[in-house]
């Protein structure tokens, strides 16, 4: 049995999707990020960085794993699925996983901050992060023009990138003119385990169908951002 400590974010949904794909038994613990539960001592003992997601593998002597990419690799290696075991195949998956961890996630995350959450509109920062996100989308589109999935068969690389790219509109980045990326988004999104995984827990972003709901969500995230900055400064 695995305990999953998570929230409705792209990084959190990576792990719920993977667990659903692997059909591993797990218990979901949805953390209230607005209440800073992730900064409480009990959780910091699992993840010293105070971020979701984290897992505890009870079958492995209560072994804790944090960082979403590390969790995906751990689960793939634990089950022998969603990542090849041969060196070349494994490397291909890890390359595209690192592409998400070092590029897509950070750039879209910063686009979210400056486009949605930051109290001041700094257009240069917005343009920078939205532009870099779109550039990375073009890289994905070019690769997917020649491949059904990112690294051979469907893998943790697809899960990681899809969980972020699917939220592109929240970052203010479109996928117009990227037909191969759109094809892949639809293909992965049709998988039953993926559909289940993005509802565990359900994202309020998916229900932000009106400007009022979007602004309410952004206001709550803005408050979390300000609280986190105050904590880092020791205020």
What's a concise summary of this model?
This protein has 235 residues and is an alpha+beta fold. It has helices spanning 10-22, 41-44, 68-79, 87-117, 123-144, 156-165, 179-189, 192-197, 211-232, and strands spanning 2-6, 26-30, 54-57, 63-66.
Explain how this protein is built.
The chain has 235 residues and is of the alpha+beta class. The chain has 2 domains: 2-79, 3-Layer(aba) Sandwich (Glutaredoxin); 87-197, Glutathione S-transferase Yfyf (Class Pi), Chain A, domain 2 (Up-down Bundle), CATH 1.20.1050.10. The protein is 56% helix and 8% strand. A 4-stranded mixed sheet has the order 2-1-3-4, with helices on one face. α1 packs parallel to α3 and α1 (10-22) runs antiparallel to α6. 34% of the residues are buried. Mean pLDDT is 92; it is low at 229-235. Residues 201-235 are annotated as: Disordered. Residues 86-209 form the GST C-terminal domain. GO terms for molecular function: transferase activity.
Main features:
235 residues, alpha+beta, Glutaredoxin, Glutathione S-transferase Yfyf (Class Pi), Chain A, domain 2, 56% helix, 8% strand, Thioredoxin-like_sf, Glutathione_S-Trfase_N, Glutathione S-transferase
Largest beta sheet, briefly? 4 strands, mixed
Q: Helix/strand/pairing class, anyone?
A: alpha+beta
State the CATH architecture of the largest domain. Up-down Bundle
The averaged pLDDT comes out at 92
Amino- and carboxy-terminal Cα gap: 39 Å
* Beta-strand proportion: 5-15%
Stretches where pLDDT falls below 50 for ≥5 residues?
Answer: 229-235
- Give the topology string: H per helix, E per strand: EHEHEEHHHHHHH
CATH topology of the largest domain: Glutathione S-transferase Yfyf (Class Pi), Chain A, domain 2
Number of domains: 2
Number of helical elements: 9
Helical amount among residues, as a percent range? Answer: 55-70%
The value of Rg in angstroms is: 18 Å
CATH class of the largest domain: Mainly Alpha
What gross morphology would you assign? Answer: globular
How many β-strand runs? 4
* Oligomerization: single chain
